[in-house]
Amino acid sequence: MKKILFIFGTRPEAIKLAPLYWEFKKYPNDFLVKVCVTAQHRHMLDQVLNFFGIKPDYDLDLMRENQSLFDITSYSLKGLEKVINEFSPHIVLVQGDTTTAFTGALAAFYKKIKVAHIEAGLRSGDKYSPYPEEINRILIGHIADYHFAPTERAKLNLYNEGIKDNVWVVGNTVIDALFLGLKIVEENRDLKNKIESYFNYFFDASEKVILVTGHRRESFGEGFENICNALKEIAELYHDMKIIYPVHLNPNVREPVQRILNGLKNVFLIEPLEYPYLIWLMSKCYMILTDSGGIQEEAPSLGKPVLVMRDVTERIEGIEAETAKLVGTKKENILKEVCTLIENHKEYQKMAKAVNPYGDGQTSKRIVEIIKT
Ligand code: UD1
Ligand code: UDP
């Protein structure tokens, strides 16, 4: 029997690993599965664990208010040493590009334990954007023994860095999670009613909604000021649009957002949404303004145009499919692109098509099959 240790710490890792965790759990004779959360996020992580019914076996509980990269890296690495010593897994599984994912891979390597990297091979080509994720992902790629690339492009990125063996193109588990989440909502009438009545407070079926999220470190300061000033102008220009913004808990995000946008009557600054609420809103909104990696991947499946408030992205497939567009963090550009999508029906229709460049919902199955053999 193979001992598998999942290591994760933030909201997006939890979302993308949840379907994979449950897929492994289908084979109790083949795998002993344990979960270690660093809890680099706390509330935002617990929301996801709760929704997908995952109870961690180990919890490092490391989140601190406004933590630095040094804090997360050092506390996480030290905490993981103990967990790995105790469980002695055959394979450690990490996802994506967070500091938890990097320290999880590094800790496993220090103990000469095999590392499986989920969502391997994404590259922006700019070491400071996303920061520090681009470098985290590169480092994990060079440590990992199994590389689960979501797309052919990701595989090629690895190939170009000399990583040629044990690379499988399997899609992205984000789509498995999305389908699973939508199914749970569809089958649970109470939950669906709760979600609908929650959002009834903000908008009715005839109203158009812009969903906004943002949290990237490289945009702290001027970038966020610009984003908020653009949103303010959009709200003032289009009184009939509703802007719903679940604000990330990072204080570097909350300060400018509250200062610039609080009090505008068609802007709703709300707490981070539980995943089923977020995907419901995503499926009903008119368009999305975001810097989120996960949302860039989910939105095309739901046929929603995404304006990506970053200068570069490692999710090129959505841009190529023309469902997403890079708009940077300059106020005038964000404003111009939003106005186009609101006023130009043809341009809107061009972007509002349901395509699935990131997966088909079967990625977890493929990964488990590969690790089983
Ligand atoms: C982290 C990841 C980023 C990922 C993002 C997803 C790193 C360096 N960053 O960024 O790659 O895209 O998560 O959201 O790995 N906070 C809370 N409660 C929470 C979560 C965060 O209060 O549940 C606040 C805390 O003050 C915390 C701060 O947010 O110190 C920053 O959290 P951190 O995980 O360091 O950075 P994120 O910006 O969330
Ligand atoms: N998400 C959520 N609630 C929110 C905002 C986002 O559940 O209020 C989900 C979203 O659907 C996606 C993931 O969180 O699956 C993205 O997380 P985030 O943007 O924090 O991180 P990133 O993907 O950029 O690393």
TrEMBL record:
EC primary class: isomerase
GO molecular function: UDP-N-acetylglucosamine 2-epimerase activity
EC number, UniProt record: 5.1.3.14
Keywords tagged on the record: Isomerase
InterPro entries, per the entry: UDP_GlcNAc_Epimerase_2_dom, WecB-like
Domain of life of the source: Bacteria
TM regions (residue ranges): none
CDD domains associated with the record: GTB_UDP-GlcNAc_2-Epimerase
UDP-N-acetylglucosamine 2-epimerase domain residues: 29-372
PANTHER family: UDP-N-ACETYLGLUCOSAMINE 2-EPIMERASE (PTHR43174:SF2)
Family from the record: Belongs to the UDP-N-acetylglucosamine 2-epimerase family.
Protein name according to UniProt: UDP-N-acetylglucosamine 2-epimerase (non-hydrolyzing)
Source organism: Dissulfurispira thermophila
